[in-house]
Please model this.
Amino acid sequence: MSILVYVENTDGQFKKSAFEAVSYAKAVADQSGNQVVALSIGNVEDAQLTLLGKYGASKVLNVNTEQLKSFVNQAYAAIIVDAAKSNDASVLILSNSFSGKGLAPRVAAKLNAALADGAIELPSATGENLQVKTGAFSGKAFAFVELTSTIKVIALNPNSFEVKEAETSATIENYSPSIDAEDFSTIVKDIIRATDKISLPEADIVVSAGRGLKGPENWGMIEELADVLGAATACSKPVSDAGWRPHSEHVGQTGIAVSPNLYIAIGISGAIQHLAGVSASKTIVVINKDPEAPFFKVADYGIVGDAFDVIPKLIVALKAYKE
Ligand code: FAD
Model:
């Protein structure tokens, strides 16, 4: 038996969430005395594949063909299912990323497996079953999901599990999955990247701003602060509705749910619908000129002040600190 973990890459580089998933898989494997088999799909160099061993993989299956260069949900799911079967996987772990959200239910259905999506902690074993703690209702509650099937699928929320080095090294195997032509009924012709910025759902630090910024012309300082911190930028819903920022930056109940280590909210009131998507952040810093702004109630640190005074000073201080 094995624990199979699917590791995502972007342009041949594994994402941080991939190493988190491998570390998580290693911890699950240690609970059950199994080994971790990592599955990589796409054009990834050996040095990157070898790195997976450092975090707990004993074997890396490398599927690298021209046809699979771009992500195709149907085909990737078929490969994961094939690898799970041929490696006798009892637990299958994926990151709960954009692609993971599409893959996990498809894979679970094909394997007749139970699925826990949005896992935030290691599972605990109850006999043959696994109990997994997941985030629910946009992070406002937790659910304890019991997986009772023979094969179990867990989709791990990004930034929920620490990347840990393990005393393992991985063998790399070129893997040729047996999949059907029908699995390629969707063909990705080209991918045009809209931005080179840090991906918001997986960012360690998020700098987010709201209507308090008054207009799109004032986002220069938000971008500069994000640059200094190596952060992704985000915004409240009215900001993206007004077209000040792209919809891809909208966080909250109706936008993206984020769980970074640090969330800095600037000129955002802290409406319940906004908090629904950000309250899983480890540390929240709020900058607002109104001391009664509801966001302060959930803040770890707060600055009562005008963003137009505070942010430029913060940028200067952070730059000085970095030097
Ligand atoms: P405002 O409420 O206008 O707050 C602006 C804040 O900026 C105020 O607190 C003010 O004190 C502060 N401020 C003003 N000037 C300055 C300054 N110079 N310096 C510092 N601070 C300043 N919202 C979301 O964000 N995400 C969602 O997913 C979402 N989904 C929704 C779903 C539904 C069904 C509904 C009904 C609403 C939803 N909303 C969502 C909207 C939400 O209710 C709020 O209206 C919205 O979050 C408010 O955005 P804001 O905080 O940027 O603006």
Observations:
- The longest helix spans residues 16-32.
- The longest strand covers residues 129-136.
- Residues 209 and 266 are 5 Å apart (CA to CA).
- The pocket of flavin-adenine dinucleotide is lined by residues 210-212, 236-239, 252-255, 267-269, 271, 273-274, 277, 287-290, 293, 306-308 (CB under 6 Å).
